[in-house]
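Good morning C.,

I know you're traveling, so I'll keep this short. The sequence:
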Amino acid sequence: MAAHFFADTATLTGRSLRHILRSPDTIITTAVMPIAIMLLFVYVLGGAIRTDAGGGSYIDYMLPGILLITVAMGVSYAGYRLFSDLRGGIFDRFHSMPIARSATLWAHVLTSLVANLVSVAVVVAVALLMGFRTGAGVGAWLAVLGILVLFVLALTWLAVIAGLSASSVEGATVFSYPLIFLPFVSSAFVPTDSMPGPVRWFAENQPVTSIVDAMRGLFAGRAVGGEVVVAVVWCLGILVVGVVVALAVYRRRIT
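The tokens, ready to paste straight into the viewer:
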């Protein structure tokens, strides 16, 4: 049974990835806006922002937040692709075949993971051209990658819920707007101690700040054991809730 599920998931993921390869504009579009924000903040606003980053450049400070914005923008396409397949009757066709039913969802999730990691790589490459530097070793880079993978999976399952529940294309993608905005009310661009009381409380107690701080510490080569644990717990918590709710909505949708 497990082998059947994995084989079906691999086959359907390959199908989705081929669609992206034929139309790579989704990856390009996902990367363009974060790069534009990065250019704006570094070359226009960065000189006026104090971060107490210990002598590092502003792009070193802000890159983790830009990567999360990249992911938040990218997962909206997962909701769109899922909604399009539902409306196009692809799911009905798959369900008439001997295919593990949850494999169709996992194929969209894994496709989103690959596409988002490619977009993140493009943004990191541009950041390096703009002056981003890090003394992080291989272990720290792998830890950052692990956090990003968990973050992509968590948000993609939220996108699956939106794609399954939406009645229009707009409804399948609009959920990502608050996710894109969330890093702006966190420590992604400025330290939280510069914010007024209620805003500071929210910024310090929402998941993006914990994830950004952990990634920033890893890039800086600091000891961040506790920060990484908090970031991973946030990602896993969102992921578990997303999977449970998405599967419940899926079962109700296909019965």
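Safe travels,
E.
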